[in-house]
Amino acid sequence: MAVLCTPHSLARAVRVALLSVSLPLAVLPMAANAAPATQDYQIPAGSLDSALNAFARRAGVLLSFDPQLTAGRSSAGLSGQYPVQQGFAQLLAGSGLRAVQASDGSFRIEQAPTLKGGEVELGDININSSTQVDSAVGPVGSYVAKRTRVGTKTDASILETPQSISVVSREQMDARGVTTVEQALRYTPNVSVPYGYDPRYDWMSLRGFDSKSSTFVNSLPLARSTYGIMRPDTYLLERVEVLRGPASVLYGQSEPGGVVNLVSKRAPDTPLHEISVRAGSHDLGELAADFGGPLDDQGTLAYRVTMLGNDMNGQVDKTDNRRQAFAPTLTWRPSDDTELTLLATYQKDDGDFAFSRAFAPELVQAFRLQGNRDREFYEGDPNFNKFERTHASLGYELSHRLNDVWSLRQNLRYENMNYDYRYLNNNGVRFDGRTLTRTSNVKDEQFNAWSLDNQAEANFATGPLSHNLLLGVDWRRLDDHEISRLGTGPTLDLLDPHYGLNVALPGKDADNDIMRRQTGFYAQDQIKFDEHWNLLLGGRYDIAKGDTDSNLNGSSVSRDDEAFTGRVGLVYVADNGLAPYVSYSESFNPTAATDPVTNQPFDPETGKQYEAGIKYQPDGGRSFISVAYFDITKQNVVSTNPNNPTDVRQVGEVRSKGFEIEALASLAEGLDLTANYSRTDARVRKSVNAWEEDTRMPYVPRESAGAWLDYTQQSGPLAGLGAGFGARYTGETSYTGRNALYGLYGPRIINVETGGYTLFDASLHYKIDGLKLAVNASNLDDKEYYSSCTEQACYFGYGRTVTASATYDW
User: 331 and 267 in contact (C-beta within 8 Å)?
Assistant: First the structure.
């Protein structure tokens, strides 16, 4: 059943709900999440209160006790893998104390009752290995994740990792009704969207650098070709993670702004049954389902199947978008030491996926353009334009614990994509100011890709130092057949457009067989000492190779690149949850450009970052605050002289520096909060063009900020009723170009500023007896804005979207 409403009635309902609910703005300590069932602990011997605090922080549970109970007592520490309650029992052995779990998941330390004969009753130790809440890859259970693999490739505490990390949980995505990764990261610091509305891809940049080549799924690279780029549906995901700053030590070639890691839904240990229907703006209709659970009484086999299908019109006239997605997974645990998870996905997107743009104001004025387009204007032709993308993947994650020290893991994935994109593209306007000239374009690609990551992890101690050592070898390969066609298309009258034309298929301008391969050897050690200090050391050596063979002219270009990248960080975790840190990290990324003089490929681009920050998470609390300052320099940037396309040199350098703040909280009273602020100064430092130096990097907002609050009534006749409201601000961006109006004014430099904008989002939701009804709206007041502008075009952002959904689980 779908809940339908008009945008006007929704706006009225949102205003009423927000006025009727009083939301506190303070970030308060909260009840603890359920802890991971079993995880590794390295708690050194020492005072009992310090050992208990360190254990609770590592386990992610809320702990309370009277300091007089532990005064003068010591603990032998803890080393190895334990469930939470068993870990407490080991730490408290011989103390006469016990840990008691409350109904909200928190723990308290109290005097154990004495039985006859002087024996101490420690209480039942309840070992429950079924829960996955807040594990490094499982459900978070709230807005605040405590653990992740994205920063270290191990099950690590975010607080103890000396680099900026954000995790968008399933709870956040559901509350805001997001369907794309781009939408999921709208309230994450220093993530910007340079090109506005575009249903084809997730266009994002991190700290000023493009993230298309830095997207990973379950820590393996999401394969991409020149044009064939996947846009995963977030309904298939458990969480979206961001590691900001260079990450080549773990992930190989990538941009220095950071990486985005998408974590797939896994098979649950308890039965899951969910069906959802959704309807809304642009004639959206969607049906989705999510089923899973154990397949046997012993819990050795568990499955999950997630699927959806939808159909909708695009924001641009005469366009439509359709999607089918299917993701089965199976987990097998033959013993406590071995686990195998099979993961597969299939997703097909087709329709006419047109982006939304207008002529730049200066171009309109200079050429006296008539009929300048609004955000619904269609510059293609339905008889020619089409977009078809089919992506399938199959892989596994295998782990085995050899003994108390060593564990082995192997992750593998195979991907296949078929991509066919045909479109008419704006090629300028004639001097009459109304005749749009167009080119006809065809991009046809098929690729096969493999990714493999082998890891050996060891947990051991050397004197006062406890080590988490990770050794790894990863490998990736992509074989791509790419055909590009380019020709002259029919013109379009801006004042009286006519569609339904017959457009001939243009001739080939490229037909290439492309092979890319990378092998990386890496090592990392997470060292803990003195109960509070955490030192992270990492190094990696990469060998990258690429071949491009032309089937048109028989030419061949090969490249071989090698690079070493390093990483070091130090964090101090105080007993009160305050954790200042410093870090240094490096990146490398091969470039496809070739030196026109030597006809040899250029060296890889390299990046380095200095970062300092502070994180804060109260003991066992479900709130988290982080502040980070960063300074990134990217070198070996290929720079081209616009007056002489053959003048291409690898002399470029860009620098991005700034700071960011993020706060998240989940309150037991039903209040959830996420807030962020970023300020970034990203500039070109060196270029083949002297006029370009010290200009701002294009599309990077100087400032951005956002806050989302969601409240659900917990008791009384309105229990289950809730509302959410968010505001997000994106500051001005700048673009500098040359010869934009050559032939009219002669050569000159053009600087285009795009003004900032503020958008509002809202939700209403009600849940009772397994049924959840929700209405979500983004860009609530339907603000028309530009995400960015060049000297020729401005890119419209997303207009208002309103969706109503009904989800039933049992």
Answer: yes
Backbone φ and ψ for 182, nearest 5 degrees, come out as -55, -45
Structure-token match 């009219």, residue found: 744
Instruction: Find how far residue 506's CA is from the centre of its chain.
Output: 37
Residue, of 223 and 129, whose pLDDT is higher:
223
Provide φ and ψ at 196, rounded to 5°.
70, -140
- Rounded CA-CA distance 25/166 in Å is 21
What is the arithmetic mean of pLDDT over 490-503?
92
Structure tokens at 629: 């300052």
Rounded alpha-carbon distances, angstroms, from residue 392 to 411, 715, 777: 17, 45, 31
The answer as to CATH 2.60.220.30 being correct for domain 272-809 is no
* Spatial contact of 633 and 601, defined as CB atoms under 8 Å apart: no
Q: What is the pLDDT of residues 379-427, one digit of tens each?
A: 999 999 999 999 999 999 999 999 999 999 999 999 999 999 999 998 8
**Is domain 39-118 given the CATH code 3.40.50.11420 in the classification?**
no
For the chain, how many helices (H) and strands (E)? 8, 45
**Widest pairwise Cα distance in the chain:** 103
Q: DSSP H helical segments within 131-180, as ranges? A: 170-176
Helix (H), strand (E), coil (C) string for 660-682: EEEEEEECCCCEEEEEEEEEEEE
Helix axes 84-91 and 48-59, enclosed angle (nearest 10)? 170
Extract the tokens encoding 426.
């704006």
- Does 510 or 53 have the greater pLDDT score? 510
Contact 90, 77 (CB under 8 A): no
Asked if residues 171 and 722 have their Cβ atoms less than 8 Å apart, the reply is no
pLDDT at 475: 97
pLDDT value of position 600: 77
> Which of 244-248, 278-282, 466-470, 743-747 comes out lowest in average pLDDT?
743-747
Residues of the chain within CATH 3.55.50.30 domain(s) are: 39-118
Residues contacting residue 565 through CB under 8 Å, at least 6 positions apart? 246, 248, 249, 539, 540, 542, 585, 586, 587, 588
**Mean pLDDT, the chain, integer:** 87
Task: State the span(s) of the chain assigned CATH 2.40.170.20.
Answer: 272-809
When pLDDT is averaged across residues 116-131 and rounded to a whole number, the result is 42
Position 459 scores a pLDDT of: 94
C-alpha to C-alpha distance for 246 and 254, rounded to whole angstroms = 8
Which amino acid, residue 637? Answer: V
In the chain, % of residues over pLDDT 90: 62
Helix (H/G/I), strand (E/B), else coil: 7: helix
Instruction: Return the closest-CA partner of residue 778 out of 117, 295, 328, 173.
Output: 173
512 to 128, 531, 557: CA distances (angstroms): 55, 57, 11
Q: In what order do the strands lie in the sheet with 793-796?
A: 357-359, 793-796, 786-789
Report the pLDDT value the prediction gives residue 692, as an integer from 0 to 100: 83
Residue 74 pLDDT class (50, 70, 90 cuts): confident
Which residues share a beta bridge with 453? 411, 474
DSSP-derived 3-state class of residue 115? coil
H or E element at residue 257: none
Residues 6+ apart with CB under 8 A from 548: 512, 513, 514, 556, 557, 558
CA-based nearest residue to 697, from 616, 639, 647? 639
CA angle at 727 for the pair 723 and 729, rounded to the nearest 5°: 170
Strand 733-738 with 801-809, pairing: unpaired
Q: Give the tens place of pLDDT for each residue, 618-669.
A: 876 689 999 999 999 999 988 776 666 667 777 789 999 999 999 999 877 7
- The tokens for 408 are 């082995």
Across 622-638, b (16+ Cβ under 10 Å) vs e yields bbbbbbbebebbbbbbb
pLDDT greater than 70 at residue 739 = no
User: What sign for the dihedral angle of Cα 234, 237, 241, 247?
Assistant: negative
